[in-house]
Amino acid sequence: MVDTYIATDVSDELVEAIRRLVPQLSRSNPPPDRDALQEIIDSDCSALFMCRDDTGILGTLTLIVFRIPTGVRAWIEDVIVDEAARGKGVGRLLNEAAIEHAFSHGAITVDLTSRPSREAANRLYRRIGFVERDTNVYRFSPPEQQGS
Ligand SMILES: CC(C)(COP(=O)(O)OP(=O)(O)OC[C@H]1O[C@@H](n2cnc3c(N)ncnc32)[C@H](O)[C@@H]1OP(=O)(O)O)[C@@H](O)C(=O)NCCC(=O)NCCS
After folding, report:
1. Distance 86 CA to ligand 1 centre (A)
2. How many percent of the chain have pLDDT more than 90?
């Protein structure tokens, strides 16, 4: 049976799973260590969603819920399903759990971004009901990284 939950402690299983999953999303950002995972779990703004079955952890997603002058907003980040578990609805389950949590905590919108080259992700988000916004996404990097 597949179960989606919010991580509440930094177990060895969680550390191993995040170490296995993060490189499947990003090769440039090393997986968080125990302290960094604890920080995510302890934060009032973030919720580390995990999905597992009886074989182990299958995927993860991080939801951030925050208040700004225009209301409570939410962002979904770092959606990753293990290669071996893809195409079985795990990504959808994680997103649906996060959206429900965001709305039940007062969020009026849930946002995310995904590079166009991430075909599976873009298809997943559209199927769930995310609608592409007409906006530009900007990023400011430290000067030493600019232009690289
Ligand atoms: C994107 C990702 C999270 C999808 O997870 P998943 O568990 O395989 O997705 P699901 O099984 O819930 O699929 C839901 C929908 O996504 C789409 N989808 C999933 N895998 C797909 C693939 N390989 N190709 C095209 N569409 C795909 C389908 O539309 C599917 O719905 P449908 O079966 O009703 O058509 C997973 O592929 C992944 O971790 N990729 C690497 C990391 C990544 O790109 N993360 C997103 C960062 S923005």
Report:
1. 7
2. 96
